[in-house]
Predict the 3D structure of the following.
Amino acid sequence: MLKLQWLQVHQFRSVQPGTRLSFSPSLNVLLGENGTGKTMLLELVAAVASSDFSALKAESFDLEYELTSDTGRITVRVRNEAGEGGTGLVMDLVVAPGDMAWPLVIHREGQQVTVSRQDDTSDVVHERIAPEVGGRLWLVLMSGGIAWVEKTGEGAAAVEPLLAMAREVSAQAGLGRFDEGLGYFDQLYQVELRLSRRAEGVLATGTGLASEDLLDGLRKVAAAQWGSARYVLPAESIPFLRDAARLLGFVSAEALLAPLESQPQGRYETLSLGHLELVFTGPGGKRVSARELGYGQKRFVAFLHYLAHARAVVVADELAHALHPRQLRAGLEQLGARQAFLTSQSPLLLDSLKFDSAEHVRGTFVRCRREDGTGVLVWEDLSPDAAEDFFTAYRAASQRVGELLQARGLW
């Protein structure tokens, strides 16, 4: 899994220049009062982890960060000068796949990519790329690898580790912030799926929040149900829906989709599906639409769907909001090996945390505050002393984590 190792902010909105944060590969919890930029930091993390800065193209910023995984490491410096006279987006990458003997240096500016070996800057090649590449890192990596192969003649095998990392980065495309309300739940119903029936089977693609869970489930049943007035996907074929039914105490669930249009396309027939409905069945046989669930139940269903898409990195705002403690624990267990960035103004999330060392404490928390007078946002890791002081109190006292944090002025 590709994870965010660290982030340095040279320029971004009202954040203190020079801010540098180190992140845990598992759980990262942002602490701070309202108005200290926690949601802003979550959205920045989502942009960086997915390496898609298209939403920030109208802003000037200068960021540096590192993504690591078992397959290698990518260090990125990305700058954007917006407005009249601005140079636009510039990206500098040092890519060190684990199976390559030498790192590549990739510079992207405008429509041009420049590629060189880090240990030999004389080996420079160029490749023109389309403007729509934008800040999407995986496309820049792919362009760099292809440029190297085309200009040096070394063959694709020479840069296959680089291309493998590009594919790993692309798997995080579309990563966003799971919001503190029901915005994500409402977006579930805007999904549209498209089927194409071919001799080798049915292909499925989607727009909106079409998770791989939903697409995989649709592939399994579409051939048998082709031409139906309604497509019924049982929860057993959609893991997030199956887990939602089980954890919310329902006997079963299913997803329903209705055809929007059907048309021939060459030798293939295509079909668009929409009007998604999620229906749960209780122990007594009563069927309940997800739209009729309670507020907290809706958030829980939406979060499980979010996890089906966020396979490596999770960015969730006020995760504990409206969730029963049992649902929150279940949600945290569902994180698995993912790297998570969470906020909570409720002690429910904080009190569920366990620590085994001061270093564990320091790696978990990020403090967010706003300087009095200047309004500058200060984001910082806990100091070693603060982490040690908290861990000593945590081991000795019966107080809850939230109370300990407040008592030490950390939350």
